[in-house]
Design brief:
- This protein is α+β, with helices and mostly antiparallel strands.
- The chain has 16 helices and eleven strands.
- The strands form three sheets. It has a six-stranded antiparallel β-sheet with strand order 9-8-7-6-10-11. A three-stranded antiparallel β-sheet has the order 2-3-4, with no helix packed on it. A two-stranded parallel sheet has the order 1-5.
- Helix 4 packs parallel to helix 14.
- The protein is globular.
Length: about 450
């Protein structure tokens, strides 16, 4: 046998092959684990052969010591990493923390149902410059079709016409229609204001779903006027005020997307952020859209761009609720936060409960369609886990050392909306460390 050339460079690893190998490994482990579950715990009791009687030499006085487990035949306990993506059996909430989490999620699940109000849809359409939006969408759609045809006459464009409508709406909403509020200006002299804290909402503000009101005072010594900033949750009011932070931005933009015919989700993050997802018929998947950042299909923005550690990302729609955390947190060890509000089986039970509640009046055809979309999305979310692990393995060469030959990681932008101090206090300032004396979060 010829000796190997010590000067030969190590063989490059193909991420595609690694992905296929890892998927096969996961399938094998899952099958073995399910097979072990079906086996009886005490084979001797279910065996058809008689149990041999112990010899006299083994008898002794006193209580019998506990039997020793077989060292050679005892299977090793599976690791958490091999079980965290296995199918989970839904379990109803029992403890107080899980019950509180259920109440929270069920309350949040009503948010997208407001987007189905015909009166609100008409009001939303009245503020959208439809000629401009549809004109830009048509131009972009034709450009994408020409680009695809230049590569392959039978190739499909990356985005369809409806996707281009949402993209045009996103640009108009961010650049013209809505404004981000840091500290509202003084209503008397337009000078900057200083935050004083929270105050009680008035009856009129409560009627417009403002459960929190921020109070500010003018910084000019000769003015010192007060300004109230109600955090409205009523979409009709937001169409009039046209200002807010990420909560108001996501709420109003989701409503406008629904008005132009898009299927929308309102995504809640436990670490105080919200955004939108829109379903793409062209790609048959849900697309991440953040109106605050004018971000389109960039789900890794928060964890890898902002440096935000996230635990739960739950998407609510008129069809139910889905845990989409795996779409936004690809490396749970590096970018994930503790998921301790309920066991994972309880969370599956809660989302299934919301789906059943929202889908009970659907036709058989629509119910079959959304169930098929659920299965396809679950496959997509599992694929992100496999891709992340395969990419991590691909960064290590055969000698066990990291390598950059497979390309550097994509540089994602930091958060653009809000002041630097506000972003740092929320832990959304990229790689910058947050200050030690963080003020309490103001809510999205």
């Amino acid at each position: 046998m010829a000796d190997q050339d010590p000067q030969r460079p190590p063989k490059q690893l193909d991420p595609h092959d690694l992905t296929q190998q890892f998927e096969q490994l996961l399938r094998t482990r899952r099958l073995n684990a399910l097979t072990d579950r079906g086996r009886p715990r005490h084979p001797a009791q279910s065996s058809p052969y008689p149990t041999p009687t112990p010899s006299r030499q083994s008898s002794h006085r006193g209580p019998h010591p506990p039997p020793r487990p077989a060292q050679n035949n005892a299977p090793a306990l599976p690791s958490y990493s091999s079980l965290r993506n296995m199918p989970k059996v839904p379990s109803p909430p029992q403890d107080d923390r899980s019950l509180r989490f259920r109440s929270l999620l069920i309350g949040l699940s009503f948010k997208p149902t407001h987007y189905e109000n015909p009166g609100l849809l008409d009001e939303a359409l009245s503020v959208i410059p439809l000629d401009r939006i549809y004109g830009e969408a048509e131009d972009e759609s034709q450009l994408l079709q020409a680009k695809a045809a230049s590569i392959d006459p039978n190739a499909k464009p990356e985005w369809g016409y409806q996707d281009c409508v949402i993209r045009a709406l996103l640009r108009w909403f961010k650049r013209i229609f809505f404004s981000f509020v840091n500290n509202p200006p003084c209503p008397v002299c337009a000078a900057p204001t200083v935050a004083l804290g929270m105050t009680t909402p008035t009856p009129e503000e409560r009627a417009r779903s403002a459960t929190r009101v921020e109070l500010y005072r003018c910084s000019a010594s000769e003015c010192r006027a007060f300004e109230r900033f109600p955090r409205y949750g009523d979409v009709w009011t937001l169409l009039q005020t046209r200002r807010g932070r990420c909560g108001e931005w996501a709420d109003c933009f989701s409503m406008l997307c629904r008005a132009v015919g898009g299927r929308v989700r309102w995504v809640w993050n436990a670490e105080d952020h919200v955004w939108t997802e829109v379903y793409s018929e062209q790609q048959k998947r849900w697309i991440h859209v953040d109106a605050c950042e004018e971000a389109w299909d960039n789900p890794r923005l928060y964890a890898e761009g902002w440096g935000k550690k996230m635990s739960y990302c739950i998407a609510f729609s008129a069809d139910g609720a889905t845990d989409v955390t795996r779409r936004y947190v690809r490396d749970a060890a590096k970018h994930g936060a503790d998921r301790n509000r309920s066991p994972e089986e309880v969370l599956v039970w809660i989302t299934d409960e919301i789906k059943k509640l929202r889908r009970e009046n659907l036709s058989k055809e629509d119910r079959r369609r959304v169930i098929y979309e659920d299965h396809r999305e679950e496959k997509e979310l599992r694929g992100y886990v496999v891709q992340a692990l395969a990419a991590e393995i691909g960064r290590i060469n055969l000698s066990g050392q990291p390598t950059a030959s497979l390309g550097e990681e994509q540089k994602l932008p930091e958060r653009a909306s809000g002041t630097q101090e506000w972003r740092e206090a929320r832990g959304e300032a990229g790689n910058r460390s947050p200050p030690n004396d963080q003020p309490p979060r103001e809510g999205h």
